Each structure stands twice: as C-alpha cells, then as structure tokens.
Amino acid sequence: MQRVGVAFIERTAAFGRLEQRKLFRTIKDETAFMALYYLGAVLGKTQPKCALDPLPAMPIEEPARTTEAIRHALPDLLRLNRYERRAAARRDRAIRRLMQGED
Questions:
Q1: Which candidate, 71, 70, 69, 82, places its Cα nearest to that of 1?
Q2: Which of 13, 28, 59, 87 has a Cα at 20 to 30 A from 69?
Q3: Can you list the positions of beta strands (E) in the chain?
Q4: Please, what's the b/e burial string for 48-61 (b: 16 or more CB within 10 A of its CB; e: otherwise)?
Q5: Quick one: which of 55, 58, 51, 60 has its CA closest to 17?
Q6: pLDDT tens, residue by residue, 20-59
C-alpha cells in the first residue's frame, strides 16, 4: 500500500497548479462581488458563494513543490493509513479464528 501513498503525492505534484488562479476578470467585478457580499449581509439577503479556490498555487521549485504536494495529499494519506490498519486488524482476527478452529 506504500505505492498508493506515493501515487497520491505524485498525482498532487503533477496536477497542482503552478500559478494562482484569478478569481475575478476585472477590479470592477471584484468590487461588485464585495459590495453584494457585504450589503447582502447587512440587508439580510443571502450571501453569494465565494469563488475561492481551496488549493493555493503549487511552488515551481523543489523541494517546496514536493512538500506542498505532501501537504495537499495528507488527508488522503491519513484515510489510507486508517484503512490499512483496519484491514490488517481484520486479517489478523481471521487468521486467529482459523488457527483456533484447527486445534
């Protein structure tokens, strides 16, 4: 399963963006969004969904790029680790049951 963890990191490093994506085409668009966001909060209107990108730009140079890829892949790596531990525990229980049945 170590190969799967390495694949998560490599995938993140390969598909991470090199530049930060612009949220608005112009300053006018950004100003309109902010006005609607804050005035909507004051007037009790529903606030527009923010267009923020959850992943920041990936650094271009190593080792910062690999470090950032690992940081992005960490939630998947933690889930994978939990799965591996549970699978190993189930396997060990099954082996113990088989061994007890043979006695």
A1: 82
A2: 87
A3: none
A4: eeeeeeeeeebeee
A5: 58
A6: 556 777 788 777 777 777 776 555 555 455 555 555 677 7
Amino acid letter for position 94: A
Q: Report the residue count for the chain.
A: 103
Give which of 35, 63, 57, 58 is closest to 47, Cα–Cα: 35
Nearest to 8 by CA among 60, 90, 83: 83
Answer yes or no: are the C-beta atoms of 24 and 96 closer than 8 Å: no
Q: Are 23 and 54 in contact (CB under 8 A)?
A: no
Q: What is the distance between the alpha carbons of residues 74 and 9, in angstroms, rounded to a whole number? A: 8
